[in-house]
Each structure stands twice: as C-alpha cells, then as structure tokens.
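New to this. Help decode both lines:
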Amino acid sequence: MLILLPPSEGKTAARRGKPLDLAALGSPVLTPARERVLDALVTLCEADPDVAASTLGVPKTQLELVALNAAVREAPTARADQVYSGVVYDALDFATLSSAARRRATSRVAVISSLFGLVRPGDRIPAYRLSGDASLPDLGGVAALWRDALGPAVTDALGKGLLVDLRSGMYAAFWRPPVDLARRVATVRVLHEVDGTRKVVSHFNKATKGRIVRALLEDGRDPRTPAALADVVRDLGWTVEVGDPTPQGTQLDVVVTDL
C-alpha cells in the first residue's frame, strides 16, 4: 500500500542539521527535475524579493518566506515528517506513532511536493514555500513539470500494492494514475453530514484524512483493493461508502458527523 498525501503550506524549519543533499533523497529518478525546480526557485528569490513574492503569491508582509527560499540549498534540513505541519499532519502526528507504525510509514507514506516531487517521511528536507499552482520564470508551472516526471517514481514506490490517494485537487494534478492502475487506486473524500445534508468541509476533510492514515499505520493491515481498504477503515470506526469503479479508480466516501 502506498498512501499519497498533499504537502502542507506551513512548514517547521529545522534549527540545525545538514544542508540539502538531493542525492540522498529517495526516488533518485527525480533528481534532474528537482534540480530544475530548485534552481528556478532560488534564482527567482535571490534576485528581487518583491518580484519573487508577487510571483509566488507571498504577502509583501511575509518576505521572510522569500528569504527562506533563497537560502534553501544551505538551510538546515530535518526529516520530512518533522517539517510538514498543518491540519493533516497534526492529526496524523508522526512523532507519537508506535515504533511499528513509524516503520510502516517509511514504506507506505509519500508526500507530493512542489519542490521535490515525491518525498518520503525520512527524507531530509529544508522548509520552503512553493505552492502547487506556482509558475516559475523560465520553467513554467511546477504542476506541468511534475506531470512529466512523477510517473516512474510513483509506480516504482507503489509496486504491486494499493494506491490510497489522499491528495487535494491541486496536487492530484501533478500526476494522474494511468487506466491500467485503476483497479488498484482508491481516492478518499470526507463528507461532513449535518441534519441529513452532506458537504466537503476543508478542516474536517484534512483532520479526518490524517486520523485515517494514523489508524491505518497503527493497524498494520495491507489491503490490496479499494473494497478491502473500505472494510479496514470501517473496522477502525468510520462510516464508508464505496463508489463504482472508474478509469481513475474507486472513490471511498468517509462520512463524519463531528470533528
């Protein structure tokens, strides 16, 4: 099983640690693409902070984020599971997983990143600010670049297992599973139900996804089909409805009534 997560916009910068070493990251097939994005981001942020802020959608009151990007090659790194923060990662809470669950996370969890493509929990990365909808000078949209590069890395990481796709729409655009993988793809949507009405609420969606990943890692089972995944998630206490298979995979709706 491979669980794909979106990154967080907010990140916790390491206070100390070795600088970035792209060669030490997993999925070395992505190194050339990582170099291209890194070079374009650093070049932009070193030149003119105001232009960089406008290009990256960073508020002019937060130019320290531009400086963070400019120094990303020399900045201290930490494990990705310590750098990414926010609602999904607070709910998942890597640091308090059991030792067995943390070992499973190493092989079963990956984060889709605008800067690094595919990141494993143990990969050492710096904090950075680069949204999935960003477009960099002389490079173009980062999503388009990763669409051309991510396929081999994801399919290699997946092997013969089930792909559990928890990415947000922005990061789902980085790579779409091919039709021949559809029977092994489960996408998860969280619906908040109040008085019989269901809707997607961002906070509920993110927090519940984080809790589901945590529960799956602690549980340890390795479902091989979307239906089997639904059974496991039900066993873990959630209400799950399974959609019809499509060329993109099978959607699981997790219905929650409270946070």
In short: Residues 2-256 form one domain. The mean pLDDT is 95.
